[in-house]
Every structure is written in C-alpha cells, then in structure tokens.
Design goal:
Layout lengths: L2 E4 L4 E9 L5 E9 L2 H17 L7 H15 L2 H19 L9 H12 L4 H20 L7 H5 L15 H8 L5 H13 L3 H5 L6 E2 L4 E4 L2 E3 L2 E3 L8 E4 L2 H14 L9 E2 L2 E2 L2 H13 L2 E2 L2 E2 L8 H12 L4 H8 L4 H8 L4 H11 L14
Antiparallel strand pairs: 1-2, 2-3, 4-5, 5-8, 6-7, 9-10, 11-12
Helix pairs in contact: 2-3, 8-10, 8-12, 13-14
Length: about 375
Amino acid sequence: MPVYKDKKRGTWYVSTYVEYRDGTRKRVMKRGFKTKREATAYENELKYESKMNSSDNPLFSEVLDDYQAMYKKTRKESTVNKTNGVIRLYIRPFFGKKRVQDISNKDISKFHSFLLEKLAVSTSKAVHKDLSAVLNYAMRMEYINSNPAREVGNIDAPENRKVEYWTFEEFRTFLSVVDCEKYRALFMLLFYSGARIGELLALTWDDIDFKSNTIDINKRYYGTTINTPKNESSIRVIKIPQHTMNQLAKFKLMSKPKLYYVVFGEYERPHNQSSINQRFYKYLDEFIVDGKQTLKRIRLHDFRHSHATYLINKNVDIQIISKRLGHSKTSTTYDIYSHLYPNKEEEAISIMEEDFKPVKRVKFKN
C-alpha cells in the first residue's frame, strides 16, 4: 500500500510510483498528511493527474487536427471545407484548450447555449452533429470511453425556420433590369428550376436538351472544383418552361459554344459564385431609391425557395416539388415549407363543409 504511517511524526505520507499510460513511470513521495484519508485522497489525485496528462489524454485541439486530416481523405472537398469551417468558428474556440477526457456533459450543455446565442436552431443542431462525430472519432482512438455529446443529445428547441423568397411579380420586376443575356438566362433558370447555384454553374451544354426542354443535373461546382452532386437524390432531370429554354437558346446562339463547355463560365471553367453574387447585388442596387430598397433583397439561394413557393401556390403536388429540388425525402421539403400550407387545410375544410348541406329548392312560377 503506497500510504504509510510516519510513527515518529504521527503523520501519514505517500510513497508510490505513478505509471502513465504511455509506459513511463515516476516516483512520488509526499509527507505531512494529518490523516490517512488525506494521504489516500492525494494518492488518488496523483493517479488521476497521471491519466489526464498522459499521451492518451491529448488536448482536444490535437484530436481535432487528427480528425480533420482523416476526414480530408474520405470526403468530398465541399464537405471538408464546410466541416473545417464549423470546427474553426465554433468547436475549436470552445473546446480546443480542454483535454479530451475532461469534456463533460455539462460542457456540452454550455456549448449549446453558446451556439444558440450566435446561430439559428437548425444550424446549431448541425454543429452539434459535427462535434459528436469528432468525439466518436476520439472513442475509436480509445481516448474516451463514451461520447458526452451523444449522452446529452442534440439541442431540444423548436426551429424558427424563416424562408425568404420572391413572388413571380417580384422576380419579373427584378428581371426588367437584367441587361445581359447570359445572366438573364441564369436567373430565369434559377427561378424556374429550383436548382442550387452550384448545380447550374456545373452545367455543360450537353446537359441541356432543347428537344425535350430538360436539364440534366449530374454534377455541381463548389469552391474551385466540379464534382458529384450533394447526394444521390440530387442527380435528376428537370423539365424547364419553354420561355426559359428560349432564353438559353438565344444565349447559346450568341456564344456558339462547344458541347463540353460550361453554360455559365468561360470554356470549361465555371464562373466563381462570388462574381455571380456581385453581379446579382449590382442589379439589386438599381432598386435603391433615396437610400431605400424598393425590391426585397434576397440571396441567390433564395431563388430555390422562390421556385418551391411558386409551385406550392400553384397547387403543384409536393412530391413533384421535392423531386425538382433534389430532396431525398418529401418530408424534407414539407419541413422547410410547411408554413405555406395552413391555408391549404382551410381549403380542405371548406370543401368538406359542403357535405350534408341542405339542398336548395328552387320554386318555379306557373
């Protein structure tokens, strides 16, 4: 037993070897404890500290470095860039200086509060999933025995999802100032396809079928590369209205491209999304009168919401909308746009109200 009684002094002391998990050993002796309990408590603290400071309990920042290196080898560039951004902005600043075994359930709860002060509920939940994935990696590396993020669970708060969009009238107003045939084609395709901007920037002319009025979405442009779409359901063929196809045909006639050239770019190189954004907001600035924005400012991504909203208001089946958007589940589409459906329930009730109504009798005069 490493706790001993000093008979001369009437006190207790600890004399033991501390073994670290990396195999190193260190002799520790400390005297002067008034009671055996105090000496034993010190011994237990020594064991705990040796465990915490060993190579098996690294700083969480070191675990993050290893995780990111591994993640880069197994994921697409777009996914890696997104995850790296989350780690850099939220996870590393909050947990980086802690040792991985020190992260407690209480720390996870505090992290949730930290996120909700900065981010929307849906985004905060996504960040929690990334943290949990890192802690799962730490478990596989045998740094920890359990995942505190999984034990606490994800953020339990209602999502106040706000969708910005343009009505058709607002879109037509915007289109009135677009004086470039290429950008006119791009904005019309965004509004009438519901495709992601990265999907349209990756389009090549051989993806466009002017006979069937369809576009084939089979890749996307993200960052600096063209790669596979976001998921399997994102690979799809979408029917496009004739007027938008006519605008594409007009632009093609002017540019005379080869089939393997990208539609929106130079030769085989798509335009950078930041340059598209700059042009978009330049057009929007034309609706600033006396310092006030007369046309609602939206993002490029909100063209996608505008397309879905446009179809919902036209009573298009949600399965069709979901397929056009490339959602893997219809429930995803409904979760995003459910706030647009309450009036549909009222319409259904008004139809049912017609049942069992007294038949109106019409009297004819003789």
